[in-house]
Every structure is written in structure tokens, then in C-alpha cells.
Design brief:
This protein is mainly alpha-helical and 209 residues long. The chain has nine helices and no strands.
């Protein structure tokens, strides 16, 4: 829940202001964005269904944020081990990054596009992390296949251990998205096994970085 000074979510009194915002199941279901994701389209989904916050677990505030930003930062900063993006300085390489991303979007006819990437998009504080009001879950997911292509190019230019581990990480991230968005409300036994194996593989290679 979002914290609002006038409606504090941590006020548990009987007269707490947030209690007036409560809606019944019918009103709650009506608020869901259309078209419905298979999970919420299920007949058993309701206001009491426990939901993971994928935005913060996986998308642009979660795992994908850290992976994407770290990979891109590695290739435009002094940490780079090859020139997957052209340019004599960070800004020039970010410009090259945007040209490659734009070309990918045009080729794939991508609908959910990242905004023009800036240095602040991939590194806003001490650590690389996606940032900016126009970075969303949908365009983060849509950029995952492109990131795999970029890292494959880097691994081909310099097949060092670091690049190989980075490639396995971004491939695993993309596969996690593929599993979750191809599955129904509940993952099958095979899908769940694949999901667990992919998470383990991602974690193992991430740990090597």
C-alpha cells in the first residue's frame, strides 16, 4: 500500500481513515486492468487472494532492474571488457546503446518500449539500478530479449568468464519471463521444475559475478 500522510496505512484504530477506502470483491475485481492476466481471470481469484508483488520481486524494482542496469553499466563504464557499444566516452556509448535498442524495437515491432536511456536510467545512486518514471514493468520485460542479444555479442567479442556468467544470467532472466507469461494461473509440474532450475541457475552464475 502507498503511504499517504493524511491516510496512514499503519493506523490501526477503529476510526482509521483508510477503512473508508475498503471496497467489496465486485468493486475490486472491476478495477483490474483489461485485458485480464490469466491469474486474475480465474474464477477463484478474489479480493482475499494472496498476490506476489511482481513489480518489486521481478520487474523494474526487482531482479530485472539490478540485472539489466548492471549489464548495461558494465558495457558503458570503465568496467567494460569489450566495446559492444561504440564511443570514446560514456555518453557516446549510451547514444550507441539507444541506437541499437531503437533498431531492435523497429525490427521486432515492440509495443512496450523503454524511454531513451540516460546515465541516470541505469545508475542513479551508488549501485546500478533502473530508474525513472517511464521505466515500467512492461517495457522492462520487453527489453529482456534484447539484453540477451547484447550480452551474446559481448561474449563473442571477449569470451571471458565474466561475460559468460553475465550471459547465463540474462538468459535465465528472459526464460523466467517466458515461463511466467506462457503459463496459466498455476504452473504445471514441468513448468514449476523448469522455474526452480532456472532460478537456481541464475543465482549460481550471478554469484560468480
Amino acid at each position: 500500500a502507498k503511504y499517504e500522510p493524511t491516510v496512514p496505512l499503519n493506523d490501526y484504530n477503529a476510526e482509521a481513515a483508510w477503512r473508508n477506502t475498503y471496497v467489496d470483491n465486485e468493486a475490486f475485481q472491476a478495477r483490474l486492468r483489461r485485458p485480464l492476466h490469466p491469474f486474475v481471470a480465474s474464477d477463484i481469484h478474489n479480493i482475499f487472494t494472496y498476490r506476489y508483488d511482481m513489480l518489486h520481486l521481478l520487474d523494474h524494482h526487482g531482479l530485472a532492474s539490478h540485472i539489466m542496469a548492471n549489464v548495461l553499466w558494465t558495457h558503458v563504464s570503465g568496467e567494460r571488457l569489450c566495446d559492444v557499444f561504440e564511443g570514446a566516452n560514456v555518453q557516446a556509448m549510451i547514444d550507441s546503446l539507444n541506437r541499437k535498442l531503437k533498431a531492435y524495437y523497429e525490427e521486432k515491432k515492440t509495443v512496450n518500449k523503454m524511454p531513451t536511456i540516460k546515465l541516470s536510467t541505469i545508475k542513479t545512486d551508488q549501485w546500478p539500478e533502473l530508474g525513472g518514471n517511464d521505466i515500467k514493468g512492461a517495457n522492462t520485460k520487453a527489453a529482456a530479449p534484447w539484453l540477451v542479444l547484447i550480452q551474446r555479442e559481448a561474449a563473442a567479442l571477449n569470451p571471458c568468464a565474466k561475460h559468460k556468467h553475465m550471459l547465463r544470467v540474462v538468459e535465465a532472466l528472459k526464460h523466467i519471463y517466458d515461463i511466467l507469461y506462457a503459463a496459466g494461473m498455476f504452473l504445471s509440474h514441468d513448468e514449476l521444475t523448469d522455474f526452480h532450475d532456472t532460478l537456481d541457475r541464475l543465482g549460481w552464475h550471478y554469484g560468480k559475478l
